[in-house]
Amino acid sequence: MDLGLFIDGLVNILQINTLLLIIAGVIGGIMIGALPGLTATMGVALLVPFTFGLPVEQGVSMLLGIFCGAMYGGSISAILIRTPGTPSAAATLLDGYPLAQKGEAGRALSMSIFASFCGGMISFIMMVILSPQISKFALNFSAPEYFALAVFGLSIIISVSGNSVLKGIMAGVFGLMIASIGLDPVSGFPRFTFGFMNLFEGPPFIPTLIGLFAFSEVFKGVEKIVTQAKVEAKITRLLPSRADIKKCWKTIVKSSILGSFIGSIPGAGGDIAAFVGYSEAKRTSKNPENFGKGEIQGVAAAEAGNNGCTGGAMIPLLSLGVPGDAVTAVLLGAFIMQGIRPGPLLYRDHIDVVYSIFAGLMIANICLLICGLLGIRFFARIISINRNILLPVIFVLSIVGSYAMRNSLFDVWFALLFGIIGYFMQRYDFPASPILLALILGPMAESNLRRALIVSQGDYSVFITRPICAVLLFLALLSLITSTIRQLRLQKKMRQEASL
Amino acid sequence: MKKADIIAGLLGLALSFYIIVQSGKFPEDHVLLLGPSFFPRILAGLMVVMSTVLIIKALLGKSAPTAEKLYIKDPGIQRSIITLIATVIYLLLLKRVGFIVDTIVYLMFLMYLLKLRDYLKMVLVAVGVTFAVYYVFKVALNIALPLGFWG
Q1: Interchain pair B4, A400: CB under 8 A
Q2: What burial class does residue A238 get, using C-beta atoms within 10 Å of its C-beta: 0-12 exposed, 13-18 middle, 19+ buried?
Q3: Annotated domain spans of chain B
Q4: B143 and A53: CB-CB below 8 Å?
């Protein structure tokens, strides 16, 4: 790491406008993350349009703030009303809610924000150290490796999302089909555009994912009229006590490092990191029987793992141009829209941008800590907003958000279409995350596959004879096979239980 | 879940055939066969295989028993459909009526549909949100929203 460059980056970020935008992003992210039913992916997708008009550094810093805030926000509702605001807060709920029931909601919340901050910072350090090395290594990659990387990322997200690998693969292939709309990356021939000029540049990214992750959710949301659970817990404490920090710091460090590594695997995200961190803390604890009954270490482990993902997921995103999970896929799309194309070349040619992003992530984490601690009571009130006000507002934000990128109503119709597709997909158990990753990775997979085959004169053995490529493809296959076996076992077990 | 899986499989097959037929019209690379139709055809092939497996599994009664059935008479489903229609009308009127009026009406309608009966709150939220969104995008971010006679 180059300290001089990092300080330059910090100077870039530490301007009053940029700081205010980061804070706005963090607060917006926490709010959306905290609202049950609005996932971090949806939150980032809804807030990305707010960064369109901004200069690059400000836009990117605000995006990082949104990202960190959204990853943390879910734990607030998990602790207070036993509903994880985002899937990755599901592990926080296990001990967070029992603590709140014991009247220690403040203790759980302050520890969760502290652990999130530590997770974010430790993973930030790992990112700063590791990502330049990986990008150097990746400079040697050529077409076959990039193709294999795309396949690897897709297969991981298919293995971890949804209940059926078969449906996951179908969703992924469908996403790749959507991604092939527009000008062919190699020859420039327009494909599947139905005569729409608007589709020549490919499917509009933000509208598509607002459709899949926001419209579809609100269409589902209007089906059931639920009155939001009221927050009953009193919040008395705003800072974690010294005794709690002393008790938890080892757990936090361990969980953060685990989270960073899990986050850095393309395809694996915050929910997995949180559960791995949690079960590791439970396994190594002296009193594992306390876990699940309100053990403060459980909250710390889950949250540190969850936010440890933030920096971890940035590693493949920045150095390889491959998103770590669904949330970072949105982030990557937004970066590209800002004119930053992550990948090894970014490190070689625009190292100043890389260091600005590093600095932005660090500042975003510090803002997260401050906003989180000061705003606990406010955020606790936000989650009791009734759905019949919230859902209409999200409809409007989705519409405006999909309109904003190109000032085009076509994009809004496109988003609405994908909202309907997404609604039916989730209804029938087809996961949407593989589509999102496919949209990002599709062009990369296709152009590198074709380039590799052109270079090899149509000889497919290049994918097996190049070691890195072969290993990645093997791991991709392995992850699909193991998760199929796991699911078959689970189904068999469920059927046996059903027949009893 | 049988029916839904069969329909999904058939849709997958239909999509694949569409892609195969369409890609036949693409300019071809006759040497290495790596033209614009190369990748979509691989995808179509994969989709055909997966869809067929899904259909066969469903016919053998091996599909996972999950999702609830879709009843058109279910009030929730009807609400989703009304919301969709309202959104379509909102979008069609956007250019004619203008963002501000259109959005206020749309928001109030949706809140009413979701059984909000506190009319003061309804108006305050609708007007507040509309103007907030309008000013953030128009003034702070310089993104022009479709304008009609209002704004």
Answers
A1: no
A2: middle
A3: 2-59, 75-140
A4: yes
- Domain membership of residue A46 (yes or no) is yes
In tens, the pLDDT along A69-90 reads 988 888 888 888 887 777 778 8
Distance from CA of B19 to the nearest CA of A (A): 8
Taking the CA of residue A429 as centre, how many other CA atoms within 13 Å lie in the half-sphere pointing to its CB?
A: 18
Q: How far is B17 from chain A (nearest CA, A)?
A: 12
Interchain contact, A399 vs B80, CB within 8 Å:
no
CB A413, CB A302: distance < 8 Å: no
DSSP string, A378-433: HHHHHTT--HHHHHHHHHHHHHHHHHHTTT-HHHHHHHHHHHHHHHHHHHTT--SH
| B74-116 confidence digits (pLDDT tens) | 888 888 899 999 999 999 998 888 888 899 999 999 999 988 8
Q: Is position A235 within any domain? A: no
Which of B34, B95, B104, B115 is the best mutation test for A, with the most CBs of A within 10 A? B34
Chain A CB contacts of B116 under 8 Å are: 386, 388-389
A378 domain-assigned? yes
Number of domains chain A is built from: 1
Asked if A497 is an interface residue toward chain B (Cβ–Cβ < 8 A), one would say no
Per residue in A413-456, pLDDT (tens digit) is 999 999 999 999 988 889 888 998 898 888 889 989 998 998 88
Q: Do A399 and B90 touch (CB under 8 A)?
A: yes
Nearest neighbour of A428 by CB, restricted to B4, B106, B126: B4
**pLDDT value at A61 more than 70:** yes
Domain-embedded: residue A234: no
Domain containing residue A269: 3-225+240-499
Cβ distance of A222 and B43 shorter than 8 Å = no
Q: Which residue of B has its CA nearest to A410?
A: B91
Helix spans in A139-241 (H): 143-160, 165-179, 205-210, 216-221
**Under a CB-based contact definition with an 8 Å cutoff, are residues A441 and A336 in contact?**
no
CB B20 within 8 A of CB B44: yes
Residues of A with CB below 8 A from B4's CB? 428
The ipTM value here is 0.91
